[in-house]
């Protein structure tokens, strides 16, 4: 029998769903992908605070920092750190619990030197914690884009 087994497909589905969450919400992805928000929530839960395997990352170029509200009105967030190299699909670097500056700063500081030298741009919303974490780690010379 040829093809992809269900167990092989799950990481690919998780990766796809995590990319869909960039600049979106669980509910938004649920609607656009016609998939249960519970399935997306499980994928997010499985990926929160996982160790980053930097050996799988070739280049960062643009780093994205954004949060997702897990439940409306419950002040429950995760921070999505993504990257996009010029000729590739976006990748999810990490999903961090909460939206604290120190958590984001710690993740950015963990970027190996060979990859930090590939950062050309940072895109984040205007939340001070994200902006300040990025400036403190990446420096003021890296161009920043802010979104509402």
Q: What's the short version?
A:
The protein is an alpha/beta fold and 148 residues long.
Strand order of the largest sheet: 3-2-1-4-5
Distance from N terminus to C terminus (CA atoms, Å) equals 49 Å
What portion of residues is helical?
25-40%
- Structure summary, number of beta strands: 5
**Major sheet summary line:** 5 strands, mixed
Our count of helices gives: 6
Question: Cα-atom Rg, whole angstroms?
Answer: 16 Å
Q: What's the overall average pLDDT, rounded?
A: 85
Give the overall form. globular
**Which structural category do the helix and sheet elements fall into?**
alpha/beta
How large a portion of the residues is in β-strands, by DSSP E?
Answer: 25-35%
Report the order of strands and helices.
HHHEEEHHEHE
Number of domains: 1
Which regions have little confidence, pLDDT < 50, spanning 5+ residues? 4-8
What key attributes describe this structure?
148 residues; alpha/beta; 6 helices; 39% helix
List the helices and strands and how they pair.
Layout: H1 6-20, H2 26-33, H3 37-47, E1 61-71, E2 76-84, E3 91-97, H4 101-109, H5 113-116, E4 119-125, H6 128-138, E5 144-147
Parallel strand pairs: 1-4, 4-5
Antiparallel strand pairs: 1-2, 2-3
